[in-house]
Design goal:
Elements lengths: L8 H47 L5 H27 L4 H25 L7
Helix pairs in contact: 1-3, 2-3
Length: 123
């Protein structure tokens, strides 16, 4: 705020003009890197499936998958959503919406992994 005082009109003007540029640049960047989000999500699901297979306890696929998905959902809400809420000044409404979406999404992914996974036959 003090930068826009009487002695610094150019800094004030530059900061106002700069605030217009990131919006368009940010939108363009998101369009160019959207594929990266899809690839990252696919990799995270693949890693989750590997972790599930390493820890499968032999119960029903749906139950094991739901348990796993709930644990991953809780982990992501605490490790990312709440962390972003505190450190990145994300609004409470957005943080709660992200928390609900991540939790439900990963619970469903866990169930699907549990339904697809077939443990190796024991000799």
């Amino acid at each position: 705020m003090e930068l826009c005082g009487v002695g610094r009109p150019l800094v004030c003007l530059a900061s106002q003009n700069a605030s217009l540029v990131p919006h368009n640049a940010e939108r363009h960047r998101r369009e160019e890197t959207r594929w990266f989000g899809f690839v990252a999500t696919f990799i995270s699901i693949l890693v989750a499936a590997i972790i599930f297979a390493m820890n499968h306890q032999g119960g029903s696929g749906t139950t094991e998958g739901a348990r796993f998905g709930v644990l991953i959902g809780i982990f992501l809400v605490c490790a990312f959503v709440l962390h972003n809420y505190v450190n990145l000044n994300v609004g409470l409404k957005l943080a709660l919406m992200q928390a609900a979406a991540y939790f439900v999404q990963w619970t469903i992914i866990g169930i699907v992994i549990g339904l697809i996974y077939k443990p190796p036959a024991k000799p």
